[in-house]
Structure formats: structure tokens, C-alpha cells
């Protein structure tokens, strides 16, 4: 499933976010920097979400399995 990156030109450079992933936002002086920073922002959001989920389910009887979302 593809995600949508949005880049907005501002006086300071560019702001960027992923439409489908709240919290994945960043900025950069150039479009290339904003793109690179957005990759890092997505990785950080995914890591934080995984950590928070693991804390919520710690000690519970759960089933974990891969989940693929078809486009």
C-alpha cells in the first residue's frame, strides 16, 4: 500500500508529512532534505508505535503474525 508524502514550500524551506500516518512530519531547508527527514520521521513513528503497543500487551496472552495490506 503506497503512502502519500506531502511537501509544502515555506519561507524557511519545506515542511513535509505523510497523509496516512499521523505524527510523521518534519521539515528541511531543501526538498531533498525534507524527503530524507521524512524517512527518518516515519521510522521514528513506527518504532514509537511498536514500543507503546508492546508496553500495552506486556504479559497478555496474544498472537502475533505478519499483516500485509494489499494496495
Describe this structure in words.
- The protein is an alpha+beta fold and 71 residues long.
- It has one domain (5-57).
- Helix content is 38%, strand content 23%.
- It is built from one helix and three strands, in the order E-E-E-H.
- The chain has one helix spanning 31-57, and strands spanning 5-10, 13-18, 25-28.
- A three-stranded antiparallel β-sheet has the order 1-2-3, covered by helices on one side.
- The longest helix has 27 residues, at 31-57.
- It is elongated, with a radius of gyration of 16 Å.
- The N and C termini lie close together (4 Å).
- The mean pLDDT is 95.
The quaternary organization reads as single chain
- Rounded to the nearest angstrom, the radius of gyration is 16 Å
Q: Specify the structural class.
A: alpha+beta
Q: What percent strand?
A: 15-25%
Number of domains: 1
Shape: elongated
Please give the alpha-carbon distance between the first and last residues: 4 Å
Strand order of the largest sheet: 1-2-3
Mean pLDDT, all residues: 95
| Helix-strand pattern | EEEH
The main pleated sheet reads as: 3 strands, antiparallel
- The strand count comes to 3
Number of helices: 1
Uncertain regions spanning at least 5 consecutive residues: none
What share of residues is helical? 25-40%
Amino acid at each position: 500500500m503506497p503512502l502519500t508524502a506531502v511537501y509544502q514550500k515555506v519561507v524557511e524551506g519545506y515542511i513535509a508529512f505523510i497523509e496516512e500516518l499521523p505524527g510523521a512530519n518534519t521539515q528541511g531547508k531543501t526538498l531533498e532534505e525534507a524527503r530524507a527527514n521524512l524517512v527518518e520521521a516515519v521510522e521514528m513513528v513506527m518504532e514509537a508505535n511498536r514500543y507503546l503497543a508492546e508496553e500495552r500487551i506486556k504479559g497478555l496472552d496474544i498472537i502475533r503474525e505478519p499483516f500485509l495490506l494489499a494496495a
